[in-house]
Amino acid sequence: MTEKQTVCVVGHKNPDTDSICSAIAYAWMKNQLQGEDGKKKYVACRAGSVSAETQYALNRFHFSQPRYLENIGTRVKDMEIRRTPGVDGKISVKDAWEFMKTHNVFTLAITDKENHLTGLVTTNDIAKSYMDENDSAIVSVAKTPYRNILKTLEAEMVVGDENGILDQGKVIIAAANPDVMENYIDPHDTVILGNRYEAQLMAILAGAGTIIVCLGAPVSKTIQHMAKEHGTTVMVTKLDTYTVARLINQSMPIDFFMKSDNLMTFGMNDYTDVIQESMLKMRYRDFPIVDKRGCYVGTISRRNLMGVRKRALILVDHNEASQAVDNVENAEILEVIDHHRLGSLETVNPVFFRNEPVGSTATIIWQIAHEREVEIPENIAGLLCSAILSDTLVFRSPTCTMLDRAAAQELAQIAGIDPQEYAKEMFQAGSTLRDKSAEEIFYNDFKTFNNNGLVIGIGQVTSLSQPELDDIAVRVKPFLEKKYKEKGLDLAFFMLTNIINEETRLLCYGESASELIMNAFGVEVKDNEARMKSVVSRKKQIVPVIMDTLNHDQDV
User: Fold this and answer.
1) Rounded to whole angstroms, how far apart are CA atoms 92 and 148?
2) What is the pLDDT of residue 359?
């Protein structure tokens, strides 16, 4: 069965209740519409921390926080990973070579019993081991298991322990007369010879550690007895002397040639735009992948970067790149569901884009459910109603429309809540900013806007309590005054909005910020503050007026 493609449904950074609840509801509805046999799996995500207000709504209707999505860039696990299994470091060079040919790979991962990566071997390493090695003692230096020698030479162990290790002496061929042999056979050497009894006996008496008898020649009982007495291992192979001499180096364990220091490995969650730079700097053909436990998974190559599939994304409650998750420009955006002004987001392909002048994205999702004849359950209705009540400030915001009211009333009935009473509880739960720092308060609901290179930041808190708002103002003002430039902002504003009085206390910082507000709204700004009656909406009452004023000033 083909694995379903995951589509992340996510709102903006510093998400509000509408952003979170709409993401959950829309992901649920998309999964309902495609049925169980759909090719996609829609998952609600969040691009920032959940506020106390939003958490209240989630708890009330029994939802967990959506998964955190900081970066939508492609990751290693989105690539086509070559899942060639790792091998034991003690297998022979010959077996390693056969394994690589069978699996058509150029790099072999060496792993331990727990599947942790211990080293890498390439075809070049194997070629060098065979072509460049002239040391006759290399087989013992590599501590070659006897099992490897027996398998490589298709040999039989006549005397000795096949579980032993050849770790001493050099490899020689007994081509001379027995009289001469004793002059060049040293203790522990491995001697390749034929069926001559005298040569076999001389090798044993000279202290050979191993003798390899070729062409399947029988080994007499006397030789076997002598070998046991002198601790000499005896093997018999049907291969000829030349072939044995040519193949014995291929019995060495592959871990003798592997690279184990400074291995460049990548994790499954590493982002491809980060690892690409590292891959281009190195000459390796393949790079190993490990999971969270450090276990080997497979390999990737530079070629895999070309075919990586972009991660799929649906944006709700925003359409500006500056407010979206990181790397959004490298994602495959499928849909945008929003109720804000058109922003700076660009897509490579056409997308389904639905933007309506209503008070909440949740209202649009409610509309889509009606259009597609999707029955909304109680818990989803509760989330959508929470989003509408929050974004419209219980219908007090100028962004609120008759459609928002109708949606909220219907959803409240399904969820079994009274809109006014429930909203009061939700807002009270959200008014828990006393223990937070000035920076946490400012960025609790903060958005940036770009106007011809001018970066403008606007934060907002809402409350039913004026004393709470006054306390927040005392703490936030010093932060704004000292820190806004460090955050890369040209202008910074902070709205302290009293929902009951439908009034906003606006804090203004930045060059010409006070003058801008006076010109835009015709209000007095004193000590970087302005009192603005009947102003509660950042989206409809603050941002458009500021942008229009800035653009008008530039035209003049």
Assistant:
1) 6
2) 95
By CB neighbour count within 10 A (0-12 exposed, 13-18 middle, 19+ buried), where does 530 fall? buried
Rounded Cα gap, residues 254 and 263, in angstroms: 17
Contact indicator for 166, 209 with CB cutoff of 8 Å: yes
Collect all residues with Cβ–Cβ distance below 8 Å to 148 and sequence separation of at least 6: 90, 91, 92, 95, 251, 252, 253
What distance in Å separates the CA atoms of residue 99 and residue 428, rounded to the nearest whole number? Answer: 66
Collapsing DSSP to helix, strand or coil, 359 comes out as: coil
Cα gap 392→541, rounded to integer Å: 13
Instruction: Tell me if 212 sits within 8 A of 235, measured CB to CB.
Output: yes
Average pLDDT over every residue of 379-399: 94
Exposed/middle/buried for residue 28 (C-beta within 10 Å: 0-12, 13-18, 19+): buried
Structure tokens, 300 = 């990737």
Q: Which tokens hold the place of 354?
A: 């639905």
Which domains does the chain possess? Answer: 5-73+310-430 (3.90.1640.10), 78-131+256-306 (3.10.580.10), 143-251 (3.40.1390.20), 438-555 (3.10.310.20)
State pLDDT tens for residues 458-485: 999 888 788 889 988 998 898 888 878 7
Beta-sheet strands, E only, within 65-122: 67-68, 107-111, 117-122
| Nearest residue to 137 via CA among 241, 236, 252 | 252
Mean predicted lDDT score pLDDT of the chain: 90
Choose the most confident range, by mean pLDDT, from 53-62, 470-479, 531-540: 53-62
Q: Which of 118, 212, 198, 121 lies closest to 166 in space, CA to CA?
A: 212
Q: What band does 132 get if pLDDT is binned at 50, 70 and 90? A: low
Q: What is the pTM (predicted TM-score) of this model?
A: 0.65
CB atoms within 10 A of CB 94: 20
Average pLDDT over residues 111-131: 87
Which tokens sit at 132?
């460049």
Tell me: pLDDT of 556 over 50: no
> What's the CA gap between 393 and 259, in Å, rounded?
64
| CA diameter of the chain | 116
Bridge partner list, 10: 45, 315
Closest among 380, 378, 368, 271 to 314, alpha carbons compared: 368
Q: Determine the Cα–Cα distance for residues 19 and 391; give it in Å rounded to an integer.
A: 10
Instruction: Return the DSSP state at 4.
Output: P
Regarding beta strands 155-159 and 233-237, do their DSSP bridges make them parallel or antiparallel, or are they unpaired? Answer: antiparallel
User: At CA 285, angle to CA 284 and CA 289, rounded to 5?
Assistant: 85
Question: According to DSSP H, which parts of 6-111 are helical?
Answer: 17-34, 52-60, 93-103
DSSP letters for 501-540: TTEEEEEEEETTHHHHHHHHH----BTTEEEEET---III
Interatomic CA distance for residues 430 and 441, integer angstroms: 12
Mean pLDDT over 327-336 rounds to 91
* Cβ(486)–Cβ(520) below 8 Å: no
